[in-house]
């Protein structure tokens, strides 16, 4: 049971933790208590502060994900790192779209650094084809009040905005997946395609992880060339790869000349309005505890 | 490097009344009387039934223009009724079709341009990395013109301004 919280002191504690960089030292105790604080301020009719705390909760998640991505890449768990990168990008875009977002946070809490890092990493991945879906959503309801969503004559809640410390989402009630398409630039790159029997070549990522062991060291990519900080210039050059496939594990074609791709495609529940925050945070807490 | 689509602006005169068509199809009950009206696009479900859909993100686009209502743009409304949302997950900013009945075409283009800028800022993408697709139907006293743009976000304002300049020459 939380009683008489000093808002100023709580903010100092949160911001002190979120401002750390190289290394990031997240105050996991404060983070784990945030959901209780959010509930407390909602119960005490301080919706505005509850919403602000929800933003900090997302920043905690972004920073913890950044550390986890680096850990996964060092352990060559490239697919898992990819999914987390996509989720983190969504978190960054989510928080930037809120009314509570403060522009100084991008520098103060290193959001731009993390966004850039993910964007650059993505370019070193060999994944090049993704599944894009085409969905007709005939009816959806508001996650805050449950009313049928309408742009003009529905409830006043807006997707991606914060109400009572919760993000408003649309929950699909009646929808139809019309088609799937193989594309190079989908809106979200969550579903990449691995044809049967093939393996991707992660040589460039492997090289980077061996080169810049410190994830806080920024790097840039221009015209497919990686630019590292000066003191890392003399390291082994990045391997040149001619194909995104690992030699010997190229995709094979069937008798009709088509690639053999998995028959099952996944539509993520999160995209349909399901809140997976708790599950995701559980994984990140577990990782941070393991790291400590 | 992302392969770019060729930039296209298609200008054509249309004779049918799109709003009346929506009433006849029982999508909406009454024709909105605003100066700027968002309308759904016609598409087909798997069983070939006709569906009227707004592209994903229309809610925020509508709110954005609504904020500028009466500031030179005029009133803003949406022909929403028996309509849904179409989510197409390719990397394209697809905006809802808009009918404009006032001479404020340039104001509308400026506002859309600002909306695209805000979108790119959140996505942290350069304008030449994202394609935009939208249709503006310009209703004037004697003619109705449809202006369809599909091309790079970087070219949007310049191309649409040139369409407007040509119109006034």
Question: TL;DR of this structure?
Answer:
Chain A has 292 residues and is an alpha+beta fold. Chain A is 40% helix and 13% strand.
Quaternary: heterodimer
Q: Could you tell me the mean pLDDT of chain B? A: 89
Number of strands of chain A: 6
**Secondary-structure element string of chain A:** HHHHHHEEEEHEEH
Q: Which segments of chain B are poorly predicted (pLDDT under 50) over 5 or more consecutive residues?
A: 1-5
How many beta-strand elements of chain B? 10
The radius of gyration of chain B is 16 Å
Q: Tally the helices of chain B: what do you get?
A: 4
> Distance between termini of chain B?
38 Å
Largest sheet of chain A, if any? 2 strands, antiparallel
β-sheet strand percentage of chain B:
25-35%
| Residue-averaged pLDDT of chain A | 89
Structure explained in plain terms:
The complex is a heterodimer of chains A (292) and B (169). Chain A has eight helices and six strands, in the order H-H-H-H-H-H-E-E-E-E-H-E-E-H. By secondary structure, chain A is of the alpha+beta class. Among the domains of chain A are: 7-125 and 274-291, no CATH class; 141-181, no CATH class. The two termini of chain A are 28 Å apart. In chain B, strands 1, 2, 5, 7, 8, 9 and 10 form a seven-stranded mixed beta sheet that branches. In chain B, strands 3-4-6 form a three-stranded mixed beta sheet, with no helix packed on it. In chain B, a hairpin with a 4-residue loop joins strand 9 (131-139) and strand 10. In chain B, helix 3 runs antiparallel to helix 4. Chain B is globular, with a radius of gyration of 16 Å. The model of chain B is unreliable at 1-5 (pLDDT under 50). Chain A binds chain B through residues 93, 96-97, 112, 115-116, 119, 132-140, 150-153, 158-160, 176, 178, 181, 183-188, and chain B through 2-3, 38, 43, 45-46, 51, 53-54, 58-60, 62-63, 77-78, 80, 84-92, 121-124. Strand 1 (130-142) of chain A pairs antiparallel with strand 6 of chain B.
């Amino acid at each position: 049971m939380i009683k008489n919280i000093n808002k100023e002191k709580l903010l100092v504690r949160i911001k002190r933790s979120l401002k750390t960089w190289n290394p990031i030292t997240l105050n996991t105790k404060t983070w784990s208590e945030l959901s209780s604080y959010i509930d407390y301020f909602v119960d005490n009719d301080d919706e505005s502060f509850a919403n602000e705390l929800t933003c900090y909760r997302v920043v905690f998640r972004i920073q913890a994900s950044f550390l986890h991505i680096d850990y996964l890449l060092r352990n060559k768990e490239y697919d898992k790192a990819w999914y987390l990168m996509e989720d983190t990008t969504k978190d960054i875009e989510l928080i930037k779209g809120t009314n509570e977002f403060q522009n100084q946070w991008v520098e103060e809490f290193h959001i731009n650094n993390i966004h850039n890092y993910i964007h650059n990493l993505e370019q070193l991945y060999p994944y090049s084809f993704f599944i894009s879906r085409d969905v007709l959503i005939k009816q959806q309801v508001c996650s805050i009040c449950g009313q049928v969503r309408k742009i003009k004559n529905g409830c006043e809640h807006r997707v991606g905005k914060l109400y009572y410390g919760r993000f408003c989402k649309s929950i699909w009630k009646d929808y139809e997946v019309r088609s799937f398409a193989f594309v190079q630039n989908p809106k979200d790159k969550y579903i990449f395609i691995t044809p049967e029997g093939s393996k991707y070549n992660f040589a460039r990522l492997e090289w980077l992880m061996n080169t810049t062991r410190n994830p806080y060291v920024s790097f840039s990519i221009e015209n497919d060339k990686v630019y590292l900080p000066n003191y890392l210039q003399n390291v082994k050059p990045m391997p040149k790869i001619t194909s995104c496939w690992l030699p010997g594990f190229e995709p094979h074609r069937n008798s009709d000349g088509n690639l053999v791709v998995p028959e099952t495609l996944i539509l993520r529940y999160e995209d349909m309005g399901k809140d997976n925050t708790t599950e995701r945070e559980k994984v990140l807490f577990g990782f941070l505890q393991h790291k400590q | 490097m992302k392969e770019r689509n060729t930039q296209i602006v298609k200008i054509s005169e249309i004779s049918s009344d799109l709003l009346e068509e929506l009433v006849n199809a029982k999508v909406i009950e009454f024709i909105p009387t605003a100066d700027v009206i968002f309308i759904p696009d016609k598409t087909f479900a798997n069983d070939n039934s006709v569906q009227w859909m707004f592209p994903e993100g229309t809610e925020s686009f509508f709110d954005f223009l609504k904020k500028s209502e009466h500031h030179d743009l005029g009133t803003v409304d949406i022909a929403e009724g028996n309509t849904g949302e179409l989510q197409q997950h390719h990397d394209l900013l697809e905006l809802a079709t808009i009918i404009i009945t006032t001479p404020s075409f340039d104001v509308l283009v400026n506002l859309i341009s600002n909306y695209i800028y805000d979108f790119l800022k959140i996505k942290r993408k350069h304008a030449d990395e994202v394609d935009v697709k939208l249709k503006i139907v310009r209703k004037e006293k004697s003619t109705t013109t449809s202006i369809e743009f599909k091309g790079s976000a970087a070219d949007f304002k310049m191309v649409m301004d040139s369409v407007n300049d040509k119109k006034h020459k």
